[in-house]
Design a protein that fits this description.
By secondary structure, the protein is of the alpha+beta class. The chain has 4 helices and 7 strands; from the N terminus they run ββαααβββββα. 20% of the residues are buried.
């Protein structure tokens, strides 16, 4: 699992030293800036993982989060597979691959920024670490 490292936190704003994580930094600082926001997504993601083989749970998750099955948006980044959108903020899109349990994070406003690609369990671990940082 990824351990959040090589970063600074000032006033609950994280800054990674590695520019590869610019989109993750943006997501944490702007869309997951409160413990309640992190908790909401963590609860949903953990439930999703625990019921991964139940397509009805996946469909309910997608509908609740306002997502949709998505075979097009990631093609722009030369990514293929059986994806659904997990969230779509103004600039950031989070996707989950059903076949590989992979999480992707892209920025539609800054297409030159790296697409973050990690196992879904790793993203959950990052959110748990971020929640701990916010609580300090």
């Amino acid at each position: 699992m990824m351990k959040l490292k090589d970063f600074t936190v000032i006033n609950h704003q994280i800054s990674f030293k590695n520019p590869y994580y610019a989109n993750l930094e943006n997501l944490l600082n702007n869309d997951f800036k409160t413990i309640s926001a992190v908790n909401q997504f963590l609860t949903e993601l953990i439930s999703l993982i625990e019921n991964w083989e139940d397509i009805a749970v996946i469909e309910a998750f997608i509908e609740k989060e306002g997502g949709y099955w998505d075979w097009q948006d990631l093609l722009d980044f030369k990514v293929r597979g059986n994806w659904f959108t997990f969230f779509k903020f103004e600039d950031l899109g989070g996707y989950i691959n059903v076949d590989t349990k992979t999480f992707y994070l892209e920025n539609s406003l800054l297409p030159n920024e790296a697409v973050i690609d990690m196992p879904l369990e790793e993203f959950i671990d990052i959110l748990q670490q971020w929640k701990h940082i916010l609580s300090e």
